[in-house]
Structure formats: C-alpha cells, structure tokens
Amino acid sequence: MEKIIPSSCKVIIILLFFSFSVCSQVRMACNCESVTKGFVSQDGFANQDEIVSWVNFRFLPLFNEMAQKRHSKTPPIKGINVIPVFCVGGNGAVAKKCEKEKASLNGNPFLILYDDYFINKIEKNNALNVLFVLAHEMGHLLSNHYHNTIPVDVDYEAYLKKTVKGYKPVFISKDVETQKMTVRERHIEELTADAFAVWFLRMYYEKNKKDPNIAKKFDPDKINDVLPQIKSVFPSMFNQETTHPSCEQRTYFVKKLNDFDNWSQVSNFKKTLGGFASEFIDSTLTVLTQEEAKQMGLAVERAKEKTEGDALRIKGLDLFRKNYFEEAKVNLQASREIYTRLIFPEDSAKVTAELKEVEEILSVRSFMHFSILGNSSFANYQLKSEGQNINATNAIVGQLGLRLGRYSYDSPFGLEVDATYDLEAWQFDTYSNDRKSLERFKTSTITVQPKLTYRFLSFSKSNKIQGFVFSAGASWMKPIKFEYLNFQVPAQNLGIRLKPSWGFTVGIGFENINRKPTLNIWGLCRVAIVSSYQPLVFDISEPLPQNYSAAAWTVGLSASVGILPKFLIKRKLDN
Q1: Residues pairing with 537 in the sheet
Q2: Cβ atoms within 10 Å of 492's Cβ, excluding its own
Q3: Residue 221 backbone dihedrals phi, psi, to 5 degrees
Q4: pLDDT band at 184 (very low <50, low <70, confident <90, very high)
Q5: Could you report the per-residue pLDDT of 507-520, keeping only the tens digit for each?
Q6: Where are the beta strands (DSSP E) in 423-491?
Q7: Cα angle value 274/279/285 (rounded, 5°)
Q8: What is the biggest distance separating any 2 CA atoms in the chain, rounded to whole angstroms?
Q9: Would the N or C end of the chain have less CB density within 10 A of its end CB?
Q10: How far apart are the C-alpha atoms of 225 and 239, rounded to whole Å?
C-alpha cells in the first residue's frame, strides 16, 4: 500500500501536467510566429512526404507551366511549406503567407497548415479527398486568399457610420492577417479555391489519363463526389454560412466547372477561375431549399449584428486605452447588449469583464495620493527694532519635498500636507544705511504645511477633472544648522538660536486629476503661485529690544506631480 500511493500520485501529476500542456496548446494562436517557432506543430500525417510531394512536385509544376503559357509576369512559385498543426480548429486546413517569417522558412513564405486527425479521417474514405483539400488551399495561396476573413457588409458599414456616433471601420489587428469583405465576396473566394482544386485534379487527370489507375482515381465524376464525402465525415465544417457556401452549393459549382463546355473555356484560358466563380455564384443559390436560404440569410444578418457588437467593443477598448472612461462604458454596454441578445456567451463574458474594469475606475469617489513637490520663491525679510525698520537683503529659496493629499472627483474640497526641505541654505544680511553688513543669518529649514484646498471654475471629463485651486493653511518651520554672525560685536555670535515657528500660506493654481488608476506622473499635477508669511523667532541670552520683530514673506511658483498609485480609495455606493 505504501508503494501504490506514491505511484498513483505520480500518475495523477503526469496527467495534470499533460492536461495543462494540451489546454495551453489549444489556446495557442495559429499565427505565423507560432507556426515558424514550432509552438503548434503536430507529429504529422503518416504519409507526410507524399503530401509534400503532391503539392510541390505534381500540382505546383502544373500551375507554373500554365503561368508560363499565359506569359504571366509573376515569377514561378518554387515551393509551399506543408505543416501539420493542431490550431486550425474546425477548418481542417488553412492557407497562410508569412512574409516576415520567411527567413526561417528557407525563404518561402507560403504555408498550408493542416490538422492530422482531419486528414487521416477523410483519407480513409477516399484519398482523393485529401488531394482536393490540399489543392483548395493552394488555390487560396495562388489567389492571395491567405487572410483570415471576417464578414463585413460594405453597405452595412456605411449604415453604422451614420447611426453609430464616432463609428470607425472594424479594427484590424496587426497580429492577425485579416481583411474586410462581404459575405458574397468571401463565398466567391471559397468557390475560386474550389475551382483551383478541380483545376489541379482535372489537369493531372488530363496529363496522365493514359495510366488506368490515375484515370480511375481522378475521374471527373469522382471529383464531383468529394465534398459530400467530406461532409459525411465532418458535417460541422459546412455550418459556416458567413464564410463558406453550403456543401450543396459547392458541389453544384464543382459539377458546373466539370461540364465539358465550362472546362474547355477554363482549360484554354478563355475564362479565369475567379471569373468563373463570380459568374456562377448566384446560380448556386438555386440548389438551396427555401428553409436553407432563410437560415443562410439569418446567419448573414446575425453576422452583421455581431460585427456591430465587435466594432462597439473595439471602440470602447480604444477609448479605455485613451482614458475616456465614460465613453468607453457607453460603447461596451452597447456591445454587451448585442452579444447577449445574439447569445454569444464567450464574447458577452469578455466584454462584461472589461466593462467591470471601467466601472470600477468610474466608481472612485475620493483617494489619497503622494506627489513630488518643488518650490522656487523670492524671500523678503522684514526686521523691526524699537519701531524702526532694519535694512535686510533678500534671497531666492528653492525647496523640494513631498505632498500627501486627499482628493475627490465629487467634492471641490480637499486636504493636503506639504513637507519640504531647502535645496540650499538661505541667508540674509542686515546692513547699515551706508550698505555695510552688520549681521548674517543662515539656515536650512524643514517646512510642514497642512492646508485646505478648494477647486473652482473646474470642468469634468470622463477621464479627468481640471480647474483652478485655491489653498490656505498653516506653515510650521523648523530651522536646521542655524548660523549667526555679528560683524560689529563678534562676542555676540554665540548664544543666538532660531526657534521653530508657525505662520500661514496661501496659493492659487491650476490642477489636473486623471481617473487613470495606474502610475502616471501627469495623472495628478498642479502648478500654482504661492505666498507665505513666516515669523522668525530668536532665542537669545541678551534681552531683545522692545517691539523687536522679524519675519519672512515669500512669493513664488510651486509645481507638483503625482507618484505611486492611489490608496485609501472610497467608492460610490451605487457602483
């Protein structure tokens, strides 16, 4: 029993690890980077070499030969990478062109990606099925259909621009090769790729029909049966009305192309494959039942509405990134309503999470925040003795420190405490009427100023509040390293100290408070003109003359920028 338990644990751990690996792989995007780095690779079809041979050494030479006969200016295609992957999902196989990554693909950007399980299943039914799928994907590559497409109706886009304020065309991600097209254009692409599949199989048949085995295997009538056979194995592949015509439509189209007259025109270059698809797409609708046509129409309309939901969501996220939170909320709410009505639970869940993040930011009522503070002031020193003014020099004072404040989006009132230290010791001299120095006072100070603030003439946006701010409060000054020098009576240099004192300060400035929760030095900033009155209280062994007073008046500029995230946040109860 003691041995069984550890062994069981190992098995469980291995299974958990395997499950995690599989889940991680399923989430992996089927993009060029993932493919070229091998993140999405499969072990491959048992006849992988044979698949590569069919694509590059049998089918591709037929295309290059045809292009040469038509005097095409496009250089011949040297090869196509055929790679088994697990990320193609319900498509079975996809075509891609990876220009940026072609250096790691021996200079060849063309790829056909296929799912090993899918190929094995359809090959057991009929090997011709596999060749049709490969030739179909080659048709996409040779026609530049290598994008992932989304159904977007051009007329509907124009409608959205008129009805949705600020609507922009559907967002195209730089990470995903995507192009906009109507459902009809997408269907024409698929029929064009089917036409290429027929062309490759039929041309190979025409060139090798003297071989009885090839003549039997590639008989045009058998080509007509390929799509129904694939549907019998994977019926879900043909439930994509917004991107693919139905199996019945595609089969009808393949049979049309295989007709003697039509094939003669295509094979003799009198009609292009894409042109043939555009010409016959409307006739394929005749094979649909009334109910099938209705379902296809509903699917297209649903796709249009889904596109509107996607556009609103993308616009909302874009506004969120730009810190326009109110506008982002409106767009995300509209997107969620569409997803919920159309029953897209995954999209609805994603946009709900994004909406919650926006609402959480908008729910903030007040918060605490630290700022770096810098002051540069002109100081005027006023000393009086026996009612007479004493001449004194002025000074420029620079200070650096921190500000801790309580700020609100709802209330104009706020509280803050400034703590600053002089960047350089300030000094002033008293002097006689003939400009001769009598005394020198020199010190550094720590200043603490608790203040009340009031915001006025302000305007609020969804992402910030801006306005003028008036501040007033007390000012406590503590001198550090005070030095006194008496040029007339050097013996009095000792025994004189500058004591801590209380004064007052006022200021008026302009403030910006952003709603962005993350660190941003411009998220909370203020520029102000400040003035303060600070009494200078001396401790001296000699008795001071009657009516002696000293004070410093300062006026200058103050600037502060926020640091660190907000804390002690209070939120609205209704959110």
Answers
A1: 499
A2: 15
A3: -65, -35
A4: confident
A5: 999 998 887 766 45
A6: 426-431, 437-460, 464-486
A7: 115
A8: 130
A9: N
A10: 19
